């Protein structure tokens, strides 16, 4: 029995190791290629360790006229505005759907959540026509307006967590004279901080990686985001894969740092959501 148990554990770890290698291998190759000189890449291929590692590819990304400076700035601004809007409006909507009473509340909530089933590609053309009609095509506001007023996923998740706040605590604060705003920001939000942090990370990752809508609604380098800039590198420098991989590595670096910094909050929020 002991031998069988050891074999079962060894088989499990072997499967997990293979899965981890298959998952991480593309990222590892991307990072290795980004630090490889074009000469070494041409001679030895992408599966060799950089000898020596070079930063020329990253320097070129930020020194070329069509480099990554503008896309990084535009992407940071876009993500910041969308994040602020989604968090504020999602928290307010989730509180209304969970603790305020008004006619048609549940029906409106489920109709809104049902929009999660609609693929983004279905609404791209209507959104494009709307933005064109009001003169916002190829502007910063066209990048953020479709997403800034809340997210069905965020509202659904927050509503379920807000409903778990003990009614005794809310009643006690109401007796002390607390209004709706004070209940929300001094009680409900602090008690749900882990799930809000997780939603912040999900929002940042989603819109940092957003490619389809920025590609459709913008043209030219003025409002180009980092995903579109990375795609443009593949067509502009299709023979210089070291430069393309440097752009890919740079695009994913902030997200990796975020996940490492906030991994404890994510684990805690997942555990609390599971228990609820």
Give your account of this protein's structure.
One of its GO terms (cellular component) is plasma membrane. Residues 72-262 form the ABC transmembrane type-1 domain. It holds the Pfam family BPD_transp_1. Its main location: membrane. The protein is 75% helix and 0% strand. It has helices spanning 2-34, 38-44, 56-63, 69-99, 105-114, 120-133, 140-144, 152-162, 167-175, 180-191, 193-208, 212-217, 226-236, 241-261, 263-275. The longest helix is centred in the N-terminal third of the chain and has 33 residues, at 2-34. The chain is globular. The two termini are 37 Å apart.
Number of helices: 15
Rg, alpha carbons = 24 Å
Proportion of residues in β-strands: under 5%
Q: How can the largest sheet be summarized?
A: none
Order of helices and strands: HHHHHHHHHHHHHHH
**Cα separation of the termini:** 37 Å
Total E-strand runs: 0
- Can you tell me the CATH topology? MetI-like fold
Named CATH architecture: Orthogonal Bundle
Uncertain spans: none
- The class by helix and strand makeup works out as mainly alpha
CATH superfamily: MetI-like
Shape call: globular
Query: Helical proportion?
Result: over 70%
Mean pLDDT across the residues is: 86
Count of folded domains: 1
CATH top level assignment = Mainly Alpha
Short summary:
The protein has 15 helices and no strands.
Topology record:
Blueprint: H1 2-34, H2 38-44, H3 56-63, H4 69-99, H5 105-114, H6 120-133, H7 140-144, H8 152-162, H9 167-175, H10 180-191, H11 193-208, H12 212-217, H13 226-236, H14 241-261, H15 263-275
């Amino acid at each position: 029995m002991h031998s069988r148990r050891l074999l079962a554990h060894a088989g499990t770890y072997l499967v997990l190791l293979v899965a981890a290698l298959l998952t991480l291998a593309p990222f590892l190759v991307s990072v290795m290629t980004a630090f490889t000189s074009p000469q070494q890449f041409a001679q030895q291929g992408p599966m060799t360790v950089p000898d020596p590692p070079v930063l020329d590819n990253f320097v070129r990304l930020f020194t070329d006229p069509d480099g990554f400076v503008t896309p990084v700035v535009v992407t940071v601004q876009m993500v910041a505005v969308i994040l602020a809007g989604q968090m504020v409006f999602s928290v307010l909507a989730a509180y209304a759907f969970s603790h305020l009473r008004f006619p048609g509340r549940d029906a409106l909530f489920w109709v809104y959540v049902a929009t999660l089933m609609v693929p983004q590609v279905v609404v791209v053309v209507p959104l494009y026509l709307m933005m064109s009609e009001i003169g916002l095509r190829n502007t910063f506001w066209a990048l953020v307006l479709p997403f800034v007023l809340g997210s069905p996923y965020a509202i659904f998740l927050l509503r379920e967590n807000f409903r778990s706040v003990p009614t005794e605590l809310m009643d006690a604060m109401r007796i002390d004279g607390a209004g709706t705003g004070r209940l929300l920001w001094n009680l409900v939000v602090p008690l749900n901080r882990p799930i809000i942090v997780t939603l912040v990370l999900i929002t940042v990752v989603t819109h940092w990686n957003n490619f389809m809508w920025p590609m459709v609604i913008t043209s030219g380098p003025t409002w180009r985001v980092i995903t579109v800039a990375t795609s443009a590198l593949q067509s502009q420098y299709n023979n210089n894969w070291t430069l393309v991989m440097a752009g890919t590595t740079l695009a994913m670096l902030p997200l990796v740092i975020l996940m490492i910094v906030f991994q404890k909050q994510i684990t805690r929020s997942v555990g609390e959501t599971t228990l609820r």
